[in-house]
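Work Package 4 report. The design task specified in the project plan requires that, given a folded chain encoded as structure tokens, an amino acid be chosen for each position. We show below one input record used in the internal validation round.
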């Protein structure tokens, strides 16, 4: 009889609504925590990749701006080459090393450049 009474007490303890309420709260907290962990696990690599792509896009934008500035400089140089004979002569002398008939071109070579060419 005592054994039956203990079983009823144990069964009554299991059916106690207050204990089930606490159990339900812990179960919901566990489910929500598991859900958050899964969401973070799924999306964290994608968020990291998004950051990498944004950095790459910013770098590419900078390269595009630099190229556009270079294009503008070349367009201005092209216009000057077509319309300014003194500029053409300046470019021919400085960049190409050309000289007028009867002139001699002297190139000044820095000492470091001389030493670099003589050493193996």
């Amino acid at each position: 009889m005592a054994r039956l009474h203990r079983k009823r007490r144990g069964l009554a303890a299991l059916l106690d609504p207050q204990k089930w309420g606490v159990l339900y709260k812990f179960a919901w907290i566990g489910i929500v925590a598991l859900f958050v962990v899964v969401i973070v696990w799924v999306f964290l690599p994608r968020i990291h990749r998004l950051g990498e792509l944004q950095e790459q896009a910013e770098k590419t934008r900078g390269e595009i701006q630099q190229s556009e500035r270079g294009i503008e400089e070349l367009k201005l140089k092209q216009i000057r080459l077509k319309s300014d004979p003194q500029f053409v002569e300046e470019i021919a002398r400085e960049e190409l090393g050309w000289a007028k008939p009867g002139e001699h071109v002297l190139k000044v070579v820095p000492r470091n450049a001389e030493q670099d060419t003589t050493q193996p």
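Residues 16 and 80 are 94 Å apart (CA to CA). Validation will be extended to a larger panel in the next phase.
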